[in-house]
Amino acid sequence: MGCTAQGIADALRAAAGVIGRHRVELIDLDRAIGDGDHGENMNRGFAAIVSALDSKVPENPGAVLKLAATTLISKVGGAAGPLYGTGFLRAATATGTMSEVDTSGVVAALRAALEGVQARGKAVAGDKTMVDALLPAVAAAEAAAGSPGADVAAVLRAAADAAAKGAESTVDLVARKGRASYLGQRSAGHLDPGARSTALILDALAQEAR
Ligand code: ADP
Ligand code: MG
Question: CA–CA separation, 143 vs 2, rounded Å?
Answer without folding.
Answer: 18
